Structure to design on (669 residues):
């Protein structure tokens, strides 16, 4: 065998042993190139999702119906920006810059969670996002705290600590609406009708149709399967909806005693594909908002850099 | 889309010592034009829940790190100097906590 | 105006300033030139919202007609708002937003330094707490004036333009009307007219460091103390107040 191949195989074997022993892989450690690329893709798309996720909620910030709700929503959106920042930071340890990641997002090369291509149409949508979308995200995130890549795991631990109030905030809004006036109850039910299925789609394709899952599980980038996480989420959420007195828009939803889980209906994967492809209600606006902020703000960043350079030069001259 | 010249703001690593903490911990990184801006950004990004008392920022390119390959020669010599570990010494009970 | 009316009005001015500016900053959420700045602007917005809530709650208690912070925020029409004209101006670009922020932060700091010594304990408490936040706000906006002024040609042009466009709104900050005079006499309020030279010194220093030109005092607009606002406020309130007004029986 070629010396180089042998060395590579040894490194790969040592790497896999480390992963299996639940040891963390750190930025300067040797890693398979595919591991690095898979992580870059997964982590950067996670970061993009947080940033784009600021927009549907930001859509109601100036219209929040009480000062308390406005304050809480603003803090939540700010957290999401912060989470995006932690994740971009963690991804940069793999050898890609934040600007490169933005380029990928803006060109469509990188994706963000398709849930954010849906519009927020009434105030209850803000409740539904906190309750369902954040609920689904949390289900996924807890697993990622044990991811094999150190910086990702640490970012997720920090994020999970901050996340706890997000879901509660959303559920609190849903409760107020569900127990409110007739119009408020209708808004709450309408929001649930529109956000339920897209939330279930957040967990990704069924395991049978998920090509990359096996390798990601082996590398402990993914800790639980799509279907397992989706089932976990449904089981936790159905009683919450019942408590609200709202109806989940799925007539196949039923408790299965034998399985010890809720059975639920088939996801419309055609809708999922269509929205991912660009045919959702807000795809264009979401991307344009990010492009406008980044490209439109370039003159500001350039100014900051120019000033810093001038200041450093003046300091050097004075020395 | 614009492919501009690479004029990205440099990356800074952030270290925070919390109120009851004993040392600065690495919490992540951020982009800023210079160290002063990095410091104010760090306050906004990493101390939103009152976590900070002392913030250090270091330009990422200024950090000098050991390599994992060094692990042998760099670290192993310490492993057999057991007297550096407090448990190596047996103290008479009368001395109490040290 | 009774003494109670004047105290109510005075507290409204303080609360409305913070609320309108906080609302304007909320519009930047998700749209700032860099992620770090998005967080910074939101931090400032949150601070201002917090101040607004404290002042409006107190104002409602002083008025004694059962109006709480939300009743005051969501059910007053334009003529009953007391925020400075400067603060309801649209965000524009980042330069316009920073110019507005800088001029107000410099004033806010001095005003609250004085209010922290108010004979009204509650007002003094709110001011003292807020002063810590405003110290940071002022540093943040001053830093940006300097970066933009002494940055690139483009940023210099934008910030100079922004300063020129907002200059005439500033004199209103330092006016003293009958309410201000009464509050000052009672030891509750601040002599804002006396703040002008201090403010000038500070602002001139920053503008000079930023290589910016202080505009001539050739125009001025005022009216907010009488509820006479620019046309911008109506749109801001329509957006902000929509839900409670559309569903007046609802609790949120």
């Amino acid at each position: 065998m070629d010396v180089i191949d042998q060395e590579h195989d040894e490194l790969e074997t040592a790497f896999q042993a480390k992963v299996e022993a639940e040891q963390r892989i750190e930025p300067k450690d040797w890693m398979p190139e595919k591991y690095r690329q898979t992580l870059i893709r997964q982590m950067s798309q996670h970061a993009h999702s947080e940033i784009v996720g600021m927009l549907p909620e930001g859509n109601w910030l100036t219209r929040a119906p009480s000062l308390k709700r406005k304050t809480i929503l603003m803090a939540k959106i700010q957290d999401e920006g912060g989470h995006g920042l932690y994740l971009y930071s963690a991804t940069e340890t793999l050898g890609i810059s934040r600007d490169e990641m933005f380029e990928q997002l803006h060109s469509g090369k990188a994706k963000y969670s398709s849930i954010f291509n849906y519009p927020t149409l009434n105030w209850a949508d803000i409740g539904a996002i906190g309750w369902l979308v954040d609920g689904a995200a949390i289900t996924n995130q807890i697993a990622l705290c044990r991811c094999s890549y150190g910086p990702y795991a640490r970012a997720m631990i920090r994020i999970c600590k901050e996340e706890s109030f997000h879901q509660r905030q959303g559920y609190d809004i849903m409760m107020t609406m569900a127990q409110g006036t007739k119009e408020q109850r209708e808004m709450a039910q309408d929001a649930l009708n529109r956000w339920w299925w897209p939330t279930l789609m957040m967990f990704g394709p069924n395991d049978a149709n998920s090509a990359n899952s096996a390798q990601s599980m082996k590398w402990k980038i993914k800790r639980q399967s799509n279907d397992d996480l989706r089932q976990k989420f449904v089981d936790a959420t159905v009683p919450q909806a019942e408590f609200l007195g709202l109806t989940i828009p799925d007539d196949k939803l039923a408790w299965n005693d034998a399985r010890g889980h809720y059975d639920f209906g088939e996801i419309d994967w055609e809708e999922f594909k269509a929205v991912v492809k660009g045919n959702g209600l807000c795809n264009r606006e979401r991307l344009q908002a990010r492009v406008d902020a980044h490209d439109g703000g370039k003159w500001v960043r350039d100014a900051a850099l120019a000033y810093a350079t001038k200041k450093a030069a003046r300091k050097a001259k004075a020395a | 889309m614009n492919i501009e010249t690479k004029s990205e703001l440099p990356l800074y690593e952030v270290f925070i010592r919390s109120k009851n903490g004993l040392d600065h911990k690495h919490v992540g990184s951020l982009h800023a034009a210079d160290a002063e801006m990095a410091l104010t950004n760090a306050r906004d990004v990493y101390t939103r829940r009152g976590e900070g008392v002392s913030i250090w920022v270091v330009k990422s390119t200024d950090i000098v790190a050991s390599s994992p390959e060094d692990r042998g020669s760099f670290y192993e010599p310490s492993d057999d100097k057991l007297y550096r570990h407090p448990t190596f010494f047996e103290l008479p009970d009368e001395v109490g906590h040290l | 105006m009774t003494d109670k009316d004047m105290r109510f009005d005075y507290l409204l001015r303080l609360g409305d300033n913070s609320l309108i500016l906080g609302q304007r900053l909320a519009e930047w959420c998700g749209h700032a030139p860099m992620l770090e700045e998005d967080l910074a602007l939101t931090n400032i917005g949150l601070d201002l919202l917090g101040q607004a809530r404290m002042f409006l709650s107190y104002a409602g208690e002083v008025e004694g007609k059962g109006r709480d912070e939300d009743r005051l925020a969501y059910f007053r029409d334009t003529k009953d708002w007391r925020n400075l004209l400067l603060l309801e101006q649209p965000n524009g670009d980042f330069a316009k937003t920073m110019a507005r922020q800088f001029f107000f932060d410099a004033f806010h700091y001095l005003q609250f330094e004085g209010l922290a010594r108010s004979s009204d304990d509650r007002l003094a408490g709110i001011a003292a707490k807020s002063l810590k936040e405003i110290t940071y706000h002022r540093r943040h906006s001053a830093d940006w004036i300097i970066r933009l002024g002494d940055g690139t040609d483009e940023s210099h042009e934008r910030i100079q333009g922004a300063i020129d466009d907002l200059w005439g709104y500033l004199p209103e900050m330092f006016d003293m009307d009958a309410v201000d005079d009464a509050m000052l006499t009672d030891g509750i309020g601040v002599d804002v007219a006396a703040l002008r030279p201090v403010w000038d010194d500070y602002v001139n220093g920053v503008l000079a460091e930023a290589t910016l030109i202080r505009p001539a005092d050739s125009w001025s607009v005022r009216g907010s103390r009488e509820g006479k606002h620019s046309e911008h406020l109506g749109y801001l309130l329509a957006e902000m107040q929509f839900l409670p007004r559309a569903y007046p029986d609802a609790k949120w």
Notes: DSSP finds two helices and three strands in chain B.
